[in-house]
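Interim report to the steering committee. The following record documents the input for Protein-L-isoaspartate O-methyltransferase (213 residues).
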Amino acid sequence: MKDTFKHKGLRQQLVNILVNKGIANETVLKAIGNIPRHLFMDSGFLDHAYQDKAFPIAADQTISQPYTVAFQTELLQVKKGDKVLEIGTGSGYQTAVLCELGAKVFSIERQQELFKKTSKFLPKLGYRPKKLIFGDGYKGLAEEAPFDSIIVTAGAPFVPKPLLGQLKIGGRLVIPVGNDVQIMTLFIRKRQKEFEQHEFGEFRFVPLLEDKN
């Protein structure tokens, strides 16, 4: 669990790459600059940890590309103290970014293996989400709703209705929608039954699957 000056230097280079790609939110960039991404990956991937690429982790999942993490997080417009629901804990890297921003994070993971691993791992790095849940992300987390924002970190063939219903008025849902290629989509809840929708181009994610295993 080492984080060296070399790692910090590589992180700064990564931050510069993200700035050049158009990420402008200072708090998001600072979070990416602070988080030791190499510790979220198998040691064999250390050399790749600070490249702007996605990489495989356990249970056929991936740790998202840093640009994608930064892009989605920027769309959420997280403020300190916001209640945020994350669908797809995965390696916990996105969770850590949200924690760095001062959000109260509730995160759902459907893969038992990843859930167990990440639940133990995040606190070791000092990241303490409000709750990590082993469950079905399609259902959201009704008992903790409403949320200031919801982020989905896997490609959804459609937008799960419960997630829209669990947003506060003024809340934001960021979700990649589509089958092979996804369109990054932002929903802003304007009124009880009124949502504003914005699209932000194509991304590729592992699929969001229903039920747990």
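The chain is about 30% helix and 25% strand. The committee is asked to note this result when reviewing the revised timeline.
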